[in-house]
Amino acid sequence: xxxxxxxxxxxxxxxxxxxxxxxxxxxxxxxxxxxxxxxxxxxxxxxxxxxxxxxxxxxxxxxxxxxxxxxxxxxxxxxxxxxxxxxxxxxxxxxxxxxxxxxxxxxxxxxxxxx
Amino acid sequence: xxxxxxxxxxxxxxxxxxxxxxxxxxxxxxxxxxxxxxxxxxxxxxxxxxxxxxxxxxxxxxxxxxxxxxxxxxxxxxxxxxxxxxxxxxxxxxxxxxxxxxxxxxxxxxx
Lengths: 115, 111
Description:
The structure holds two protein chains of two kinds. By secondary structure, chain A is mostly beta strands. Helices cover 0% and strands 49% of the residues of chain A. Chain B is mainly beta. In chain B, strands 2, 4, 5, 9, 10 and 11 form a six-stranded mixed sheet that branches. A five-stranded antiparallel sheet of chain B has the order 1-3-8-7-6, with no helix packed on it. The interface between A and B is medium-sized, with 27 and 27 residues.
């Protein structure tokens, strides 16, 4: 059981480059989220999805796009990378709150540096 | 703007001491969770509290949800080096079901 898989684990970009952070889960979870983690800031919600075809903005959505074409995948796109996007990115998934255990599972993270 | 503020931000103590971490907000949450994160890994869920005033115990860890569902605390009794890590609270909002994380408390327990 792979759980939540994020790729790549590390990435270095130049300012202005674009890239996609991949996230896949094999637990048939409806809810998926992207967070970024910066020192002293905990985790901040970027975008989230409550099911295939449905996405919404979190606390810090600017500069990021998402789509949810399947239940399993929830990619995060950086259209034009900026140094302010240097961070550790975490993808997470869970069942809909109220359905069974209210547990959010996290991937191992993607460490992104924008030069 | 961070909806959930944690205090203290850093805590460095000796093995055997007790400690309390606080998680405060002006918002009301349908539930609140506590996570622990090790370096290089994602957060792992410790507990979920749902009812205002609820107290849950997990071995030496005691979690409390405020009566007004706006705040929570984590108390560790007789801390051990294995308790070292980043502790994060997270509240689920009523209207959008978002899970919003706190600012985090980094705990270091020395032998």
